[in-house]
Hints:
The complex is a heterodimer of chains A (385) and B (77). By secondary structure, chain A is α/β, with parallel strands linked by helices. Chain A is 41% helix and 14% strand. In chain A, the strands form 3 sheets. Chain A has a 7-stranded mixed beta sheet, sandwiched between helices. In chain A, helix 1 runs antiparallel to helix 7, helix 5 runs parallel beside helix 6 and helix 8 crosses helix 10. Chain B is globular, with a radius of gyration of 11 Å. In chain B, strands 1-2-4-3 form a 4-stranded mixed beta sheet, with helices on one face. Chain B is built from 2 helices and 4 strands. At the A-B interface, loops of A face helix 1 and helix 2 of B.
Amino acid sequence: VSTVERPVYLDAASTAPLHPVAREAMAAALAEGWADPARLYGPARRARLLLDGAREAVAECVGARPDEVTFTASGTQAAHLAVLGALAGRRRVGDRLVHSAVEHSCVLHAAERHRASGGSAARVPVDRLGRVDAAVFAAAVSEPGTALASLMSANHEVGTVQPVAEVAAACAAAGVPLHVDAAQSLGRLPVPAGWSLLSASAHKWGGPPGVGVLVVRTGTRWVSPLPADERERGRVPGFENVPAVVGAAAALRARLSEMDAEAARLRPLVDRIRQAVPRLVPDVEVVGDPVGRLPHLVTFSCLYVDGEALLHALDRRGFAVSSGSSCTSSTLTPSHVLEAMGVLSHGNVRVSLHRDTTEEDVDRFLTALPEVVADLRRTAGVTGL
Amino acid sequence: MTPALVLDCRGKRCPLPVIELARRIGEVGVGELICVLADDPAARIDVPAWCRMRGQDYAGESAGPNGVPGYLVRRMH
């Protein structure tokens, strides 16, 4: 008799399960905030109040003024607008963008677009742990013609925290605005100081999908790279999704109130995985910074194992995880993050925990993983190689 | 120095080129070079990473037939 066990979702870094307060707030906002917040009648004013309230809440959470905060359709759109808008606003100063080699693909794609339209972009390398050297980044920023720097708060694939404070100080000294992509850290770690533009994504912190946040500090030159529209102070075109924005703000506030307790609970679970995996599975490389990292995320690569086969095998055992291996990507190219770090890219697994993850879930994963890897290696005839 | 052995891993996806390398490095002498011809872009990351994990020496990249990269490994033990 086989028992069907509860599936274990360990891919919060892709998207976190909806926070219960978001569900409640959205249900209320669907009833009360459906009208056009730009109009002047009663239902419209109610929608406007809800939108303004959400803006104030998010502003408080990120340490900004409400008029600096705008809502976008996604974290990706927020990062695109942050990068391309700041570059457009600083066109007279220069056309050079400086970013790390391990930025999220949305920043790299914005950089590609910038290069395609005649601009230049400098990619700052990372060390084996996935971290930029703040001095190297600072030197790149201080080169003449630098219009913008972009550095993520923490890496989405390996969890390594970047030296944002030091880089921000260097950017301030050079008079260069800094964009911080906080998509993976907002609600998990305190917001770093010193940025001029911040972008984030609600579904990563337990809000609904379809809401990003773009924060542009007062005094930062910014010109929309998109056609004009009066919504969101001219920064983001299109009708605001008020119910989703309200849910996003409620979830962020709840997350911040739980943040320290959650980090204290999840960090030891991740430590356990980091320590147990190399002990239980031969020939595994655990990657990313073991100390300066996100509290909820751990990544490792299993030698001689096909990443896609590993994901499917874990899925059959009820575990949802993701991978940076090339065979799991639509383009069949390995993760640019693992490539920049120079670590094994095949057999890669990213495990990311969330508020519903229990110690038992981690125990079950640590029981299943060695069996799954041994099985795949046996099938491929690579055991003991 | 020319490689003592060339492994043609064209058309093979990772981890297959690395598996082939691990299986056959014993066929070259210590100090000799083995070349892994591979068109899977992941091999560019995984061959040097394998060398690091296995204490072998990654000796760089050379252009093989039709521009397919060859990854050179020096057997150290």
